[in-house]
Write a structure and sequence with these properties.
It is a single chain. The protein is α/β, with parallel strands linked by helices. It has helices spanning 17-28, 38-46, 65-78, 95-105, 114-117, 127-135, 154-163, 180-185, 208-217, 233-241, 247-262, and strands spanning 5-10, 52-56, 82-84, 86-87, 109-112, 139-142, 168-171, 192-195, 222-223. Strands 4-5-6-7-8-9 form a six-stranded parallel sheet. The protein has a three-stranded parallel sheet with strand order 1-2-3. Strand 2, helix 3 (65-78) and strand 3 form a beta-alpha-beta unit. The longest helix has 16 residues, at 247-262. The protein starts with a strand and ends in a 5-residue tail after the last helix.
Length: 267
Amino acid sequence: MQKIIDAHAHIFPDKIAVKASDSIGAFYGIDMDSDASGASLIEKEKEIGTERILVCSSALSAQQVESINDFIHAQCEKHPEFVGLAAMHKDYDNFEEELDRVIAMGLHGVKFHNDMQRFDIDDPKMFPIYKAMADRHMIVLFHMGDDRYDYSAPKRMSRIAQEFEDLTIIGAHFGGYRRWEESFGIPKLPNVYYDTSSSLPFMGEDMSMPLRLIDRFGPERFFFGSDFPMWSPKQELERFMKLGLDNETNAMILYDNFIRVFGLERV
């Protein structure tokens, strides 16, 4: 039986899990599959037997950074299957101390939602944060490519990947939510990876675009992701399997690549 890791899921404290899910849905104009609590995520992942789940939550202000990171750490402690990413904000001053703190907590990197946080990926103000992360061998996950904004344009991620060659980058949504042709056009870079989340429903019935992107950048650079609570993991896995990839490629994207890049032990 194929092992599965979900490399893109959002969780929020129970008291705001419904509100947070509704807010995400309003931002994209899409009905959410679930509330965004950790417990709901666990139940949804049981439907496909997910072994590990990458969880995150974005800080919309500098004041939220520490409380979000405390929450993600607590959830990872409660649920050993969770692999956590920290939050960070462009206006957070003591970022080096906070990065050290989240590393000590066992978190693996940082998630930025550039469209909601409203800053360009390649804003020079972010360079000290990226350097600090690269120096600490942390991973950064960028929301990518919303065609309503230019904050997360694929070309911006490409610039940062070339400027910070030691920074491991994951470009969510095949590197460009609704901007996949632009994603296809950026260089193939050794420090850039991609996830499959929140894209397959919009990429056309023939699935030529996801297959082109996987071929362009190599299946060794992709992770499966659901983008919970936007979609159910089961629903996204069904869509992914319709790509018709061979068993070896499926194993890489669904499990092996994540284990390798995040330096985890196989179970």
